Amino acid sequence: MSHQGLNANPAKDSSTKLSLKDQTVARKAWKYDFLVFIGRFQPFHNGHLAVVERALALSQRLIICVGSSDAARSSRNPFTAEERIASIRDSLGAAERERVVFIQIQDHTYNDTAWIEQIQSSVASVVCDYGFGDSRVGLIGYSKDESSYYLNLFPQWASENVRQDVIYNSTDIRRDYFRSNPIISDHVMPEAVVDFLKDFLRDESYRALVAESEFIRKFRKQFEQLPYPPTFNTVDAVVIQSGHILMVRRGAMPGKGLWALPGGYLNVDETLIESMLRELREETRLKVPAPVLKGNIQAVQTFDDPHRSARGRILTQAYLIKLPDGPLPKVKGGDDAAHAAWLPLGSLKPREIFEDHYHIIQVMKSRLKEDRI
């Protein structure tokens, strides 16, 4: 997997031009050759900066793994990987920048093994480019951050847990920022990040994210007086035919304009499969008879990642329907779907797809049964 330094064409710094003897002497000044820092940095704040500074005091190089690099903009992941990398880079001094390498890490919401393997192989690639055969690699994080969870996932690396007296929370920063009267907490973020957030106020994406954040706040406020947070049940149809998948473009918030699987909330008077068939008809106008759809169901699976939706706790039941290869049936957007279309499976882009639907598709594709002649 590709990685990038802080320049457009990252190159090894002057330390790599030293003789082997000089490099060996230089290594003794550091506890590690590489430290790895994993996070989403939505946005990068002073807590993250403290970890970076500690890492650079302990290690010759720091590898920053920027998570959710392929996620569509949302209230939880509002900034692209490129924007986050730029804001982190601008928060560092020139000498520090020369010792930092960035890796973009894609989500694998329902496959932890694939996510871990992606980090392992990406870090190994950086070590191969910059390091030695016996490079000392460690993982660094701090107890408040999700990195403390990651520390247990890479037993081959030593770990450094950075203790902090002040706890910073990106969720709170985003909540204050994405509102009609934005608050930029400049005392909890580096100046470069504050400048980026001020500039982003003029971006069209900011206005869309504010509208979505307000929608979500109002949606969740409806249930504040309940004794327990509600859990919602939804259904999704994963309909595949001739190398294409049936998708709808969302016409309403959240995720307005993004591609999504046909689906929706379960009504109180219907079964899960009845709900799926109803939503499929309403949103795509697919005229394949219900018995044919039912007869081509190859798999059913529940997807329950706690963070899969900003609206709250939503479990979805996905149905994999593999229609016989042939001409694609006509479809048309209906209900709250602005558009419906058959998309080539090879053309799907995570940044254009709602919530975790891309990852649901990947899981369900793996359950396809081979056609037999």
Question: What does this 3D model show about the protein?
Answer:
By secondary structure, the chain is α/β, with parallel strands linked by helices. The chain folds into 2 domains: 14-200, HUPs (Rossmann fold), CATH 3.40.50.620; 232-365, Alpha-Beta Complex (Nucleoside Triphosphate Pyrophosphohydrolase), CATH 3.90.79.10. The protein contains 12 helices and 12 strands. The protein has helices at residues 20-27, 46-58, 81-90, 94-97, 112-130, 147-150, 170-177, 191-200, 204-221, 272-284, 290-295, 357-365, and strands at 32-39, 59-66, 100-104, 137-142, 158-162, 231-241, 244-250, 259-260, 263-265, 297-303, 313-322, 337-344. The strands form 2 sheets. Strands 6, 7, 8, 9, 10, 11 and 12 form a 7-stranded mixed sheet that branches. It comes from Aestuariispira insulae. InterPro entries: Cyt_trans-like, NUDIX_hydrolase-like_dom_sf, NUDIX_hydrolase_dom, Rossmann-like_a/b/a_fold. Residues 230-365 form the Nudix hydrolase domain. This is Bifunctional NMN adenylyltransferase/nudix hydrolase.
Compose a concise summary of this entry.
Keywords: Hydrolase, Nucleotidyltransferase, Transferase. This protein has 373 residues and is an alpha/beta fold.
Low-confidence stretches: 6-17
**Second rung of CATH, namely the architecture of the largest domain:** 3-Layer(aba) Sandwich
Looking at the structure, the CATH topology of the largest domain is Rossmann fold
Average pLDDT number: 91
Q: What order do the helices and strands follow?
A: HEHEHHEHEHEHHHEEEEHHEEEH
- For the secondary structure, the number of strands is 12
Helix segment tally: 12
| Content-based structural category | alpha/beta
